[in-house]
Specification:
Elements lengths: L13 H4 L7 E4 L14 H9 L3 E5 L10 H7 L2 E3 L1 H5 L3 E3 L6 H4 L7 E4 L7 H9 L3 E4 L14 H20 L7 E3 L2 E3 L3 E5 L3 H12 L3 E5 L4 H8 L3 E2 L20 H15 L4 E4 L14 H6 L5 E4 L16 E4 L2 E4 L9 H19 E2 L2 E2 L6 H6 E4 L2 E2 L2 H7 L2
Parallel strand pairs: 1-2, 1-4, 2-3, 4-5, 5-6, 9-10, 9-12, 10-11, 12-13, 13-15
Antiparallel strand pairs: 6-18, 7-8, 14-15, 16-17, 18-19
The structure holds nicotinamide-adenine-dinucleotide.
Nicotinamide-adenine-dinucleotide binds next to helix 7 and helix 8.
């Protein structure tokens, strides 16, 4: 691990980064995960950061897959560098969770910000602590009003909800809108969206804009109004009490409640051409909402797009990343849909990171305030320690 040094050749730390004689350097390495097309900073964000007194180094071709060529970064004032220089910057910005090998490239005392999978990737957490990296995981940013502009989970789920609906429209083999033609009139598609959080509400809005007859379901009653405000019909399963907790998230249902919901949805599935599922409770396996019997109730040619495949799937038959065909019903569970819309996904993500940097940088210097609840909640490792309680458990430290 490289030791980051300041101009007086002292070993670096966030405290030292706060008093560097040169501008703090933000590095953006090229994403390495297969299929990841996003980039952590777009040229407009580079321009804005340089305007606040930071320097930006971007690895050559890091933005290319998202539609941002190196020349645009140079125009924005960034230095285009090789892999090592990007990884050894003072602050490194990243989209996908880095591998241990990548974490080991970081300088001791540097800051890493990105999706760091603190609840699933113990190896990454241990490597960050061992390397004396201060890490901020964007997925651990609390979903509070002040943090909305930094909420990368939401910005990216929005993109995924939109992309999932376009995928469904493409794969359904039928029109979404009603179509009146000389050769006859075609009925609009019936689309049901399960889980009306960020991705689900965007899926409802998008399916509605495409002309489908849309309904939506969530176990939080507040979501019913939101479904209706987007032109969807809320499925009011009011035999289940409101499942919203104080923090705004849903509580897990009891086995009996789950069974009641599944029975109702299995029966409702028979009336749908397309079901898009997005139900989740953070940190838990996805609830199964459509069973094999529900799939069997659907007409041949119907489609399920399951966004929750990576956490087990909302449909009993889902296989993450695979196409399953059951009694003529197609079930698809794509991952990383955000990369299908890499230009705008990157633009939104980049704005989230710009706002996180605004929180930890004052007049061009790094100032980490652990009294701030956003910093405290999202900081995974600092000065060799794993500060985040659940990440510490997952890392077995
Ligand atoms: N595949 C992809 O490319 C991709 C991309 C982004 C997000 N996702 C996934 O999409 C899902 C939704 O993400 P989000 O950011 O919208 O989450 P969110 O937390 O905003 O929304 C999830 C919703 O599910 C609801 N819910 C929980 N249990 C339920 C149940 N039993 N029945 C009905 N509704 C229930 C919650 O009340 C909440 O409104 C997650 O599984 C996420 O991992 C997938």
């Amino acid at each position: 691990m490289t030791e980051l040094v300041d101009s007086d050749a002292r070993p670096c730390s966030p405290e030292v980064l706060g008093s560097l004689a040169r501008p703090v350097k933000v590095g953006v390495p090229k994403e390495s995960v297969n299929g990841e097309r996003r980039v952590a900073l777009v040229p407009d964000a580079v321009r804005a950061l340089i305007g606040t007194g930071l320097a930006v180094s971007i690895e050559a071709s890091a933005g290319e897959a998202a539609g941002y060529p190196d020349a645009e970064y140079v125009d924005a004032g960034a230095e285009v560098v090789g892999r090592d220089a990007a990884w050894t910057s003072d602050i490194v910005l990243r989209v996908a969770t880095p591998t241990v090998e990548e974490v080991n490239r970081l300088s001791s005392g540097s800051v890493l910000i990105g999706f760091l999978a603190p609840l699933t990737s113990g190896d990454t957490t241990r490597a960050m602590a061992a390397g004396n990296v201060t890490s901020l995981a964007v997925e651990a940013i609390p979903r509070i009003t002040r943090a909305q502009s930094m909420d990368a989970l939401s910005s990216q789920a929005n993109v995924a909800g939109y992309a999932a609906t376009l995928l469904a429209a493409r794969e359904a083999g039928r029109f979404f809108p009603m179509m009146t033609t000389a050769a006859g009139t075609v009925k609009p598609a019936r689309v049901l969206v399960l889980g009306a959080g960020v991705a689900g509400l965007q899926a409802i809005a998008t399916a509605k804009r495409l002309g489908a007859v849309v309904s939506g379901f969530d176990i939080r009653r507040a979501a019913w109004e939101q479904i209706a405000s987007l032109g969807g019909r809320p499925l009011r399963l009011d035999f289940i009490p409101d499942a919203e907790t104080e923090g705004g998230y849903a509580r897990p249902l009891s086995d009996e409640e789950n069974q009641q919901v599944r029975d109702a949805l299995d029966e409702n599935a028979a009336r749908q051409d397309v079901i898009i599922t997005t139900a989740q409770i953070p940190g838990r396996a996805a609830p199964v909402l459509i069973t094999a019997a529900g799939v069997a109730n659907m007409a041949a040619g119907s489609l399920i797009v399951d966004l929750a495949g990576d956490s087990g799937g909302n449909c009993e038959l889902t296989q993450a990343g695979e196409l399953v065909v059951h009694d003529g019903v197609k079930i698809i569970s794509p991952s990383n849909l955000e990369s299908d819309m890499a230009a705008h996904a990157s633009q939104l993500y980049s704005k989230n990171l710009e706002n996180v940097l605004g929180l930890i940088i004052e007049e061009g210097s790094l100032k980490l305030d652990f009294e701030d609840e956003i910093v405290a909640a999202s900081c995974i490792t600092h000065q060799g320690e794993i500060r985040h309680e659940r990440a510490r458990e997952v890392a077995g430290a």
